[in-house]
Amino acid sequence: MPDDAPEKDRPLAPVGGSAEPPEGTPKDAAAGSPAAEMKETAKPPAPAAPTASATPAGTKPAAPAARPAVPAAPKEPAIKPLPLDNELVQRMKSRFGAAIQEAWLDRKQSIIVVARGLLAEVARSCRDDEEFDMLTDLTAVDWPKREKRFDVVLNLYSFARNERLRIKAMAGENESIPSLCAVWPAANWMEREVFDMFGIVFEGHPNLQRILMPDEWEGYPLRKDYDILRQDTAWVRENLGIESGQ
Amino acid sequence: MDERSIHGMSGAGTTVLGADEIILNMGPQHPSTHGVLRVKLKLDGERVVGTECIIGYLHRGVEKIAEHRSYQQFAPYVDRMDYVAAVSNGLGYCEAVEKLLGAEAPPRARVVRTILTELQRIASHLLWLGTHALDIGALTPVFYCFREREEILKIFEKYCGARLTTHAFRIGGLQYETYDGFEAETKRFCDDFAHKIDEYETLLTENRIWVERTKGVGILSAEDAIALSVTGPVLRASGVKWDIRKAMPYAAYDQYEFEIPTRENGDTYDRYLVRMEEMRQSRHICLQAIENIPSGPIMGKVGKVLKPPPGEVYHAIEAPKGELGYYIISDGTTQPYRLRVRPPSFINLQAFDSMARGGLVADVVAIIGTIDIVLGEVDR
Fold this sequence. Notes:
The complex is a heterodimer of chains A (246) and B (380).
Chain A: H1 5-9, H2 26-31, H3 33-42, H4 49-52, H5 62-66, E1 82-83, H6 87-96, E2 100-106, E3 109-114, H7 119-128, E4 134-142, E5 150-158, E6 163-171, E7 177-178, H8 187-198, E8 202-203, H9 233-240
Parallel strand pairs in A: 3-6, 7-8
Antiparallel strand pairs in A: 1-2, 2-3, 4-5, 5-6
Chain B: E1 21-26, E2 38-44, E3 47-54, H1 62-66, H2 71-78, H3 86-101, H4 107-136, H5 141-160, E4 169-170, E5 173-174, H6 182-204, H7 208-214, H8 222-227, H9 233-237, H10 244-247, H11 268-291, E6 311-319, E7 322-330, E8 336-342, H12 344-349, H13 352-356, H14 364-371, H15 375-379
Antiparallel strand pairs in B: 1-2, 2-3, 4-5, 6-7, 7-8
Helix pairs in contact in B: 2-3, 3-4, 4-5, 4-11, 4-14, 5-6, 6-11
């Protein structure tokens, strides 16, 4: 990735947390956050300082002033996922038991992970029992290092509750996902797009063909192991009459 | 090039036709498909008995590109999806990344964003009205619509130097202060526009040809619309009073009064009326916002290098065509791990089949027009 290489060399500005203590020694402040982190871990012997600070005259009076600011720990992420255990999750757990694998809140948005096999039943129950009547979006994410590499993600919306809910199901490389076309006809094209881009097979889909890419195209472009410059050169040669699309 | 190799034809070998049925190919080079949309129509005489949309001609892999650009670098790309409503695309993207970062744009930036986005909604609806009327055979409105749209594009050009792919907003706020006379020009446009829109209505609303061509054409019931995830004016014309600007306010929409126009019949005529009323409401929002733009900074506190904390967010706005959503996953680096665009055009186009099936072949053009699609967004 030629893009991010120069950024790694550049000093990084802390984004989430507040600025560093302005009183700190200029050397440390200039070094940027990685150094600040090191300093923090190296600091613990310091607590003796309040009594000792008078004797080592070498340290500037700034040192005690800086200390209260350091435990503010700007490294602590301001935003982090919180466990979710509201009534909705409890009702779904009572209905589906262990199929509801995980639930958390991320940036105030509810996310529930369900077992792949029961996805259609869970979706139907969300629509009929929980009033999540619209399938806003259906997509997938590729995590190639994980044992089950794909997440299929549904974004549901409830008009009655004015709420969104995200449901995820994990699938391995050669595992299929039950199609939701019978629950929401809108899933038809969305699942075709996921199939087109990731190669995930939706079982029971009435017409699982590529939708954006040409039908004969080899490979699934949104997989992480599909390089951004890669293309089906044979297809390009045959159909466009040129050697390469680049 | 033999027939087999033409994109999309290879799977067509299995179509079974009745004795009276024919297949008619429409597009991708057809003036009324608003871009490169190809529709295969199965006809029984003049009646449409089946349709198939073949899309992807403009596919550029926007979501893949996003994974290889930093958050700021990707912002101009979103303008090129719905290229007649670039400002709305930019608003959705910037707000989604801000949500991911836990940052917020300052009040002044939010109000200016709202004004520009509403002007963009008017511009997008004007383009729709002109071309839709042209498709159906009313030649005049397109000239008037483009005249008014030009005024809006001039405001954009003065504001950020670009007319279509504006890249008007930045993550965290705005790059540019408003120019001298921005308020006055916007106000003048809004004042003039009030009777301009009445003028368009005198051309069409009670025009017998227009009414005959649109009333009862391409009916979509509210249940079907929801089941097909249709959003925007198409959903509201079917009688569902739902608008993200009201349901989950963003930018500065919670500060202004406006109505959500709805109709009951869900036909092409109602969708026309809903969009006409939406333009009036957008004008109303602009006038309220222009009265009182708060002073203060235009850029919030975001770093030069954006590294959102790991996690994910879905943020949607009410774009002129419907719900435009961004689902972004961050892995803590400067580039999105995954960025999914929920495109209103793509998902609304899926309802085309249920709207056109059973109708006349002459109405197909009216139905494509009434969904208001932009192929750049359908294909991304």
